[in-house]
Amino acid sequence: MSAPEDRLTTLGITLPEPMAAVANYVPFVITGSLLFVSGQVSAGPDGRITGRLGEAMDLTEGQQAARLCGLNLIAQCKAATGQLSRIKRVVKLGGFVNAAPDFVDIPQVINGCSDLMVEVFGEAGRHARSAVASPVLPLGVAVEIDGIFEIG
């Protein structure tokens, strides 16, 4: 196994099946040495995590939703490359949080995904990032995150 896959095992994490696109796009695109993964939503085998941060959800629940997005990103990386050891660096994450107008802890929500990237990829998991609020997200999900990865 590769180092990232070993880390997943150590963390007791089993990756979900990669999610199929829900509209007219593809889950990922590889161009040159970059892998672009389409936005992954807070959905897993038990269904979608829906709701608005600052209303029906608190910060901890938002971080769990973002972590689930991260697991879906990693699952797409594995589908795209065949093995996670091909991921040389997590370059950038773009995070979107379904948030009430007065909820301002958007960066802390997205840390749920950012922390997972460092846990799985080590120093190569440290990345640039954006984190923004949105009044609504597709399918009513709480969080959506896309990513850019360097592959080798």
In words, what does this structure look like?
The protein has 152 residues and is of the alpha+beta class. It has one domain (3-151): 2-Layer Sandwich (60s Ribosomal Protein L30, Chain: A), CATH 3.30.1330.40. The protein is built from 3 helices and 7 strands; from the N terminus they run αββββαβαββ. The strands form 2 sheets. It has a 5-stranded mixed sheet. A two-stranded antiparallel sheet has the order 3-4. Strand 1 (28-31) and strand 2 form a beta hairpin. Helix 2 (59-81) packs across helix 3. The radius of gyration is 14 Å and the shape is globular.
Topology (SSEs and partners):
Blueprint: H1 3-11, E1 28-31, E2 34-41, E3 43-44, E4 47-48, H2 59-81, E5 87-98, H3 106-121, E6 128-134, E7 143-151
Parallel strand pairs: 5-6
Antiparallel strand pairs: 1-2, 2-7, 3-4, 5-7
Helix pairs in contact: 2-3
Q: What keyword list fits this structure?
A:
single chain, 152 residues, 60s Ribosomal Protein L30, Chain: A, two-stranded antiparallel sheet, 29% strand, globular
